[in-house]
Amino acid sequence: MSSHSKKQPALKKITRGLTVGSVITGSTFFHGPPVLALGLTKLFKQSKKVDETNIKITNSWLSVNNWLIDHVLANTQWDISIDDDLDLNMQGRYLMMCNHQSWVDTTVNQYFGLTRMPLTRFFTKWELIFIPFVGQAFKILGFPMMKRHSKEQIAKNPELKHRDMEEARKSCEQLLSQPFTLLNYLEGTRFTAEKHAQQKSTFTNLLKPKAGGLALALNILGDQIDALVDMTIVYPDGVPGYGEFWLGEVPRIAVNLRKIDIPAWVAGGNYEEDAEFREKFQQWVDQIWTEKDQLISEMKSKYSPVV
């Protein structure tokens, strides 16, 4: 729970919670079945039209969520800035990286991106396919689903490592038939003070970045994307929980997007097998993270505490 959430009368809080919960539930039951039904047709025949229709249905579901944010949660003030050299459009192909503090981050991404960028996907575990409705929706909508093997399994059977890479390649290549935004949380987990201390992170506002996922995506998609985008999210009044957000108890959210130039040497590099390239790539990512860390401090400094 954030320490500076807006307090509201109990009755208003209950009413808002019931309204938001009812609308989201109703919208999900309205939009979900058509996506799943159309998705089943892909078992027999792949169809670009079906994919486009499912994306439109999903965006309609997101638009209901955004309507709630704009009208029911209207107390939240948004400060969104986009660098001048970043030209976003709904037909683009983007790799995006973002800091990660809360489950709210994904909702912020969806709120921002609905009218500015293609539908955001992110890497998910194959095991999620067995979660009713959610796992199937991820698969149908083209979220890259990875069958990852443990280090112990790979040690016993090194061929599994190459199989993992091939699965990732196929998952990413499937995105190329349409506009996309592929999101990667480089920290790999949500930021907390405990994790920051445990890692002995050299960054003030961030955990250490894991470069492997970004390296893999750039290796597969690098010459096909329009931009590498860095999204930075700041909650000036404390990191909120998911429930706090939907109850309208988050006073302010600040978002910055900037374009990251990809060095020429990145093309064709082998992160998994080339130790020299891996070290150089990690240093490049660390530099991006250093700039991002400074940006977060600057964004936080702009805001006075809510009284």
TrEMBL record:
Molecular-function annotations in GO: acyltransferase activity
InterPro entries assigned: Plipid/glycerol_acylTrfase
Domain spans labelled Phospholipid/glycerol acyltransferase: 94-236
Top-level taxon in the UniProt lineage: Bacteria
Keywords of the record: Acyltransferase, Transferase
Pfam family of the protein (one): Acyltransferase
Entry keyword Hydrolase: no
PANTHER family membership: 1-ACYLGLYCEROL-3-PHOSPHATE ACYLTRANSFERASE-RELATED, LYSOCARDIOLIPIN ACYLTRANSFERASE 1
Stated name of the protein: Acyltransferase
Natural source organism: Acinetobacter cumulans
